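Working notes for the structural subgroup meeting. M.R. asked for a predicted model of this chain before we commit to crystallization trials. I am recording the input and output together here so anyone reviewing the notebook later can reproduce the run.

Input as submitted:
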Amino acid sequence: MASPATVGPPAPPHPDKSPHPPSLKRPRSSEDDTGASSPTKKHKVDFNEHVTVHPPDDPDDKPDDLVREEVRSALSQQLQGNGSKYDQLKQYFTTKPHEDDALSTKLLQKYVTALSGHSSSLNRTCASLVHAVLKCRWLGRDQEFVNAYARLLANIISSHGGFTQSVLHMLVGKFDQLRATEGKLPNHEVIKLPVLRKRVHSVLGFLLRLIPSANASMTSVLIGNFPYIDENVKRHKEYIGNILRLAEYAVELKDRITSMVTERLVKIDVQMQTRLEDLEEGRAEVLLKEIFQEQNDEDGDSDDTGDSSDDDEDLEPDLTAVEKQELEFKTAMGKQDAVMTMLFEFYDPVFRDGKDSAINQNFPVILHQFVNTVLPSYRSRHTQFLIFHFAQSSPALIERFTESCANIIQDMTRPRLVRMAAAAYLSSFIARGARIPARMVKDVVDLLASQLEKLRSRYEIDCQGPDYAQYAPFYGAMQALMYIFCFRWRDLIMLDDDSAPFQDEDIFDCQNLHWHPGLFDTLDKCFHSRLNPLRICAPQIVSQFSRIANMVKFAYVHLKLDSNKRVRLSKPIVAPISNYTGFQRRDTALTVKSGESGLIMEAYFPFDPYQLPRSKKWVESDYLTWKSIRIGDDEEDDSDSDGDVDVDDDEVGIEPIEEDESESSP
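Returned structure, recorded in token form:
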């Protein structure tokens, strides 16, 4: 058997040469030796100065694929700890448009679009990039860019809800800090402030519609961006105007937004009363005239002609203390007037159109805000005129408001001062409302008279004498009833169905007028009870009621008033009202006095004359001013004066802000 052949290594090609050690150097081919060109060989480049060198392509023409890859790579490397490309990406968005290295709008839009495609990667590790995107000057660019930017924001918050508040804060922050310069970018058409505002709302509305869960974050964002109460008029007007605009398309937020505005309005209202108390006597009237003139001068001026920056309302350091107080008062009143005007304008279309569905949606909101925000605020002076105006839109709404006040008056679970405030609001509404029918006047008089009778029967058993602290609800109801009588006594006269309308001169043609049933008996019992309301109720109201009641031959109480001059009031033994009601009574100039003035009622009726100059037009036709009693000069009466009884509004209803010595005298 033949043995297998042995295969040896091939013979070396050049057996005459010695073997060489291995080398990394590429061996040269025969072509190299002959000088033939190789496709991989680099040639020396000679530049010809006469040849035109073309610049690189326009950066705006950078391919979309290349931009997307650049963004992907930057995000990927950031996760691996290499942030150089990531930092460059942030810089694209934060560089100001006028700087030399700023990207054009066209190229920046490509990065915006690329980021939208990678929005799922923008997690917490990329928070700084998201914040850089939010700092981008986007409002003044073309509409195509704005649309792309809005889509990026939507993708960010839909992918990562943790960025929702940051995005919303950026948008809402522009409500009162929008500058005209944002619409003046290099190489762009100038975009005016109204268009910039429209873009903000367009993007915000787009996000809220696309991502309904974002609505849940809006309340805290809106509260957080609200101007401080000491901010100037312009910032309040811009911010509140914008959130009311938001309420028009963000229906879910409407009730909360209007509540926020009402709460701020009450704070400004209280601030204005505080500023008024700081003024010297007589200066308020002068300042009101100045404010009215200034408001007229400003009418027609546009807020869109410049930046929304702080203006000359800021206090100057060289003002005297008095000048500073006066400027603070004017600023507070200006804010109050501006916000009231905006709220009137906001609700007016709803009630003017008269659609029941819209009215039934909005009036309960206004009523709720009144009950929960305005009513407990004893010092509110103008905010309540919203419900005063809109409640008179129809008889049905008048009835709803009066019923609400009546229910509070009779609700013994509520603090007594809240019930007393409700009585003051109800009586002031009935007395001052120009559209209140006579039937409603009589119904409210019946309600208060019934309440008086119940309270008198309950309190008189243990009563040792007049005591405001102990029997405050009784005195509140009595003062409310007397106030209504001063304004509406004509509606309380009983006439035959075929009788002509009552004229003031008829007082002297009738020996005995027929008055609303039970009214005189109820009041007469109260006047002569041990509770002695004529000693506790505000002297201005008591004095005016006495004059009118005597003149119209309803009642003669002068003898009781004379005897009351000898009745001395003493401080109550019982605890102060606030201690057993849970409702803090307001400290006033009267309550801190040691004399009797602190033991009688204030003449507080919340619908006393409206003072804000610009928004006053909204309530002028709703408002019943004081109507004097017209009598002939040759007639005699038992009052202190003959002729026309012409009394100013302030004699009958004194604002709660005027709490000085003069309130204690008729």
